Amino acid sequence: MSAYSLLEQHFRKIGNLNHVQAITSWDESAMMPSGGGEARAAAMTTLQVLIHELTTDPKVGDLIAGAKSEPLDAWQSANLREVSRTYRDATCMPGDLVAAQKSATSMSEQAWRRHRANNDWTAMAPHLIEVVNLARQEATVRSEATGLGLYDSLLDTYEPDVTGAQVSAIFDELKSFLPDFVDAVIERQKSAPPIPVTGDFSIQNQKVLGQEVMATLGFDFEHGRLDISHHPFCGGVPDDVRITTRYDEQNFISALMGVIHETGHAMYEQGLPIAWRGQPVGNALSSGTHESQSLLMEMQACRTPEFFCYLAPKAQRAFLGQQSNDPAWNADNLFKLYTEVKRSLIRVDADEVTYPLHVILRFEIEQALIEGSLEVEDLPDAWNLKMAEYLKLDTQGNFMDGCLQDVHWPAGLFGYFPTYTLGAMTAAQLFAAAKLAISDLPKQISRGDFAPLLLWLRHNVHNKGKFDDYNSLMTSATGRRLEVAPFRSHLEARYLSS
Prior knowledge:
Elements: H1 3-30, H2 37-55, H3 58-67, H4 74-91, H5 95-117, H6 121-146, H7 150-158, H8 164-189, H9 203-217, E1 224-228, E2 234-237, E3 240-245, H10 253-271, H11 287-301, H12 305-320, H13 331-338, H14 355-371, H15 379-391, H16 418-437, H17 441-446, H18 451-460, H19 470-478, H20 485-495
Parallel strand pairs: 1-3
Antiparallel strand pairs: 2-3
């Protein structure tokens, strides 16, 4: 058997263990009883160490060296490139650090669920201090292996070949117009505010509507499901995708858009190349690309007047049991509700205009935490200062809706936040290209026909996996590399055009 074939065999085994890890992680967040936390942390630590041992096995390096001299087709060559990258990233991490991180983050996530609910920063801080210290150790190790800066070495694990300096330049461009843009949009919307939709929106009815919309978008329920968690997320594997949301029985808007968002993630997973499942080249391209698929569905396709022509009668039937002439439930008003811009404390509930400011705040804080210019003890004050500067809001003493609102830092996911806004910009650019390629796309959306859009995404994004790098994928799909301009044009057209 060739060196390359042995590599595929080896990484297929690793892929199977990653499958188990993904489902177990979903279960911890969505189904596990509280008393199972300590044992689950130990089990997941063992699994993580085993995966790390297999990935860093010295024979992998020998096989990579051997495979480089073998004749390979284009997909095999791309897989060898990604195998090499995976091996490099894993071998630079000592096993004891991997084990320490897995144990610390597992316990930290569990603590976050308890202490966030109680607004208890004092109890949560020690867990976060440990996680940050371990993340700094990881950054040091990865920096030495890659030659990248401390924060850049972590960012690279989510968005390959993107640096903090590049992100800062993009974010500076956004910051140059967004604060004034937010003011202008809020002032404009005052003249025709939406009518609140009130009622008792039972969780069961919300779930039924959410599943109906998921099916319309193209979600495959034979290979996925919808559940509830503290924090909406998409987990699992391409053949068994698990998405979650959280419900508010006084407001169905937040949960529905959360479902649409996570469905975008899930359909990307379901569309990854079947022939390369379990191999590195068959994985999603990057976190930013992944986020682009959720935001393309949530923000680009499903916050349009056309989508609400489809949604309005279905929402009326779901919650009223019949069609209604109440102006609060018509398509125009629902569109206004779903595109209302306001400053809010919660990132996952933020509109698309203010959302980038939430991300910029987190990017600047986590970069400072990793590089050592900010300590965990000072995190609440730093958060409050930036929230006041960017969004004119106060989080003093409100840790639940402030620095404890996200699971990312307790989970050790430093370098992840920038990908949300990179994803929003990617989504805008991809959707603009899709509208050019599919001439009647808005009419199709108004009929609830998402098949042509999904087919376009399958061809241009999903089934490519990691075959292309990000710049090549964007150039192929849209004709140019990522730019801020399409995102800005999208916002201006939706929120300030007559």
